[in-house]
Specification:
Layout: E1 29-33, H1 38-49, E2 53-57, H2 67-70, E3 74-75, E4 88-91, H3 100-107, E5 111-114, H4 115-125, E6 128-132, H5 137-150, E7 157-163, E8 168-171, E9 179-182, E10 197-200, H6 215-227, E11 234-237, E12 251-254, H7 269-284, H8 289-298, E13 307-311, E14 317-321, H9 326-339, E15 345-349, H10 354-359, H11 361-367, E16 373-377, H12 396-403, E17 416-419, H13 422-432, E18 438-442, H14 447-453
Parallel strand pairs: 1-2, 1-4, 2-3, 4-5, 6-9, 6-10, 7-9, 10-11, 11-12, 14-18, 15-16, 15-18, 16-17
Antiparallel strand pairs: 7-8, 13-14
Helix pairs in contact: 5-7, 5-8, 7-8, 9-11
C-alpha cells in the first residue's frame, strides 16, 4: 500500500502571498549576490513573480538579453554609495560572507542569508518535498515536477539546472501544493530545510571538502537531514538507499524496481533506478498508472545531462554532461553506450576540484573504461587549498594499463592525451574525429565551454 501525500491545504488567499511574512524594513526588496547560479536564479524568479524588487550581482555579469532582467531584476550598482536599501541580501555558497556587496547591504539594514538558509525560510512558509541524494538530484527533482505538471497539477519546483520540458529551472506555482526542491548535501546545506516529505535517491561518499571522514560522515549528515522532516511526512527511498529509517520521525517507504516492461525516456541503468523512485513518488501524489507511465516514458532530462548541443564541422555529435564524480562518470558512459551502441565514444573529461580528485583518485581510471578515446583537461580548481597540488596527468599510467587489459576488448591503441590549453585540445580532438562519433564532454567546471567551442 503506497503512502498518499496530502496536497489539500485550502484555497490560497489571492490578496496575499506567502512571502509577505519575509517583508522587512525596506519593503519587498532583495539583493542576490552570486545571482548567476541556477539556484539563485530560481530564487530570483520566485520573488520577482511575487512582486518583489530583486537586485542581482554576479562576478560574471548579466547579458542584456537575460530573462531575469526582462522579468524585472535590476543589476546592483557597482558603487556601494549608490546602492539602495534592501530587506534581504542572499549570497550563494560561492560568495564569502565578507563580500563587499553583502557587507554594504547588511550595513544598510538588510538581513543576510545564504541561499540554503533562504530555502529554509521558504520551507517554513510552504510545504516542501525535498529531493536528496549524492547523485541524481537534478534529474529526479525535474522528473517528479514534470510528471506532476504533465498530469495537470500546478506544481512549483526548484531544480539545479534548466529543464527544457518545464521551460525553466524554477516556478512557484500553486502555494497549496508542495514545492518540489532539489536539496544539496554540500556544506550540509540541506540541514536548513524543514521538509514535509523526502525523496532519497542514494547516499555515497562525496564532497570531501565538506566530509573528510568519507561515507560514514556523509551518512550521519543524511540521518540528521531525515530527522528534520515533519513527523507526518514520509521518506521515499530509492533502490540504492541505505536503511536510514530509524532516523525518520515519520514514515519510510522503499520503492520497487521498475518492471522490464516499463519504458523510460532516459538511457542508463541508473536512470531506471531513478525512474523507480520517481514512479513511487508520483503514485503517492495520486497519479494513476497511465499518468505515471507517461511521465516515465516522455521525460527527456535536464540541461547538461547527456545534452546534445550540436555537431562539429565533420558531423560528430557533441554531448555535454555534468558528471564529475567517478560513480557519475561511469554511469554516464554506460548510458551513452546504451543510447548510441554502434558509435565511438570520444570522451573529454575535466576533473572538478583537486580535493575530489585526490580523494577518489583510484576510481577515476576505471570509471572511464567505456571511452573509445580520452582527452583529459586539467583539473578545474574550486575551493581547493593552494597547498594541495594534483594533475590529471597522474591518471595516465593507470589508463594506459587498463586500455591494454580491458576485459573482452583490449584497446592498447586507445587515443589518450592530456592538454593544458583548450585550443590545443580542440585541434587534437578534431584530428581524431570521424563523422559518426559521439563527443562526450564530462565535468562540472568549464568543460561545457570547451564543448561549445567544438561546434
Amino acid at each position: 500500500m503506497g503512502v498518499a501525500i496530502d496536497t489539500v491545504k485550502g484555497k490560497p488567499n489571492r490578496s496575499s502571498h506567502p512571502f509577505d511574512s519575509l517583508v522587512g524594513a525596506a519593503g519587498k526588496s532583495m539583493l542576490l549576490v552570486g545571482a548567476g547560479g541556477c539556484g539563485m536564479r530560481g530564487l530570483a524568479a520566485f520573488f520577482l513573480d511575487a512582486g518583489w524588487q530583486v537586485y542581482g550581482q554576479d562576478a560574471g555579469g548579466f547579458q542584456s538579453t537575460d530573462p531575469l532582467l526582462a522579468a524585472g531584476m535590476k543589476e546592483w550598482p557597482a558603487a556601494s554609495a549608490a546602492a539602495p536599501a534592501v530587506s534581504w541580501v542572499v549570497r550563494s555558497a560561492a560568495v564569502a560572507a565578507q563580500d563587499s556587496h553583502v557587507c554594504s547591504a547588511v550595513a544598510g539594514g538588510a538581513r543576510g542569508a545564504l541561499y540554503a538558509e533562504m530555502l529554509g525560510e521558504l520551507s517554513k512558509i510552504r510545504p516542501v518535498f525535498a529531493v536528496a541524494g549524492s547523485h541524481g538530484k537534478t534529474t529526479c527533482t525535474a522528473w517528479i515536477a514534470y510528471g506532476l505538471r504533465a498530469a495537470g497539477m500546478d506544481t512549483g519546483f526548484l531544480v539545479g539546472a534548466f529543464v527544457p520540458q518545464l521551460g525553466a529551472s524554477a516556478y512557484w506555482g500553486d502555494s497549496s501544493l508542495p514545492l518540489i526542491v532539489e536539496s544539496c548535501e554540500y556544506a550540509r546545506s540541506f540541514h536548513h530545510l524543514r521538509p514535509k516529505n523526502i525523496a532519497l535517491i542514494n547516499v555515497d561518499a562525496e564532497h570531501p571538502d565538506t566530509y573528510p571522514g568519507g561515507l560514514p560522515e556523509v551518512e550521519l549528515a543524511f540521518e540528521h537531514f531525515i530527522g528534520l522532516m515533519d513527523s507526518s511526512g514520509t521518506v521515499f527511498a530509492g533502490p540504492e538507499t541505505p536503511d536510514l529509517a530509524v532516523s525518520s520521525a515519520g514514515g519510510w517507504e522503499d520503492c520497487e524496481l521498475l518492471p522490464d516492461s516499463f519504458e523510460i525516456g532516459l538511457a542508463g541503468h541508473h536512470n531506471r533506478r531513478n525512474g523507480a523512485l520517481v514512479a513511487t513518488v508520483l503514485r503517492a501524489f495520486g497519479l494513476d498508472e497511465k499518468a505515471v507511465k507517461h511521465a516515465l516514458a516522455t521525460f527527456q532530462g535536464a540541461a547538461r545531462r547527456l545534452e546534445e548541443i550540436g555537431y562539429t564541422k565533420n558531423g560528430a555529435l557533441v554531448v555535454s554532461d555534468y558528471a564529475h564524480h567517478p560513480v557519475e562518470v561511469k554511469a554516464t558512459l554506460q548510458a551513452a553506450r546504451e543510447r548510441w551502441p554502434q558509435r565511438r565514444l570520444m570522451v573529454v573529461f575535466q576533473p572538478h576540484q583537486a580535493q575530489r580528485f585526490h580523494a577518489y583518485r583510484d576510481l577515476f581510471a576505471p570509471s572511464l573504461d567505456d571511452a573509445d578515446a580520452l582527452l583529459l583537461l586539467e583539473i578545474y580548481r574550486s575551493r581547493d587549498p593552494e597547498e594541495l597540488q594534483a594533475s590529471v596527468a597522474e591518471l595516465v599510467p593507470e589508463l594506459n594499463k587498463r586500455s591494454s587489459n580491458l576485459p573482452g576488448a583490449p584497446r592498447p591503441d586507445r587515443p589518450l592525451r592530456v592538454v593544458q590549453n583548450p585550443q590545443e585540445g580542440c585541434k587534437i580532438l578534431t584530428s581524431w574525429l570521424l563523422p559518426d562519433d559521439i563527443v562526450l564532454c564530462l565535468g562540472a567546471g568549464d568543460v561545457d565551454v570547451f564543448a561549445r567551442q567544438l561546434l
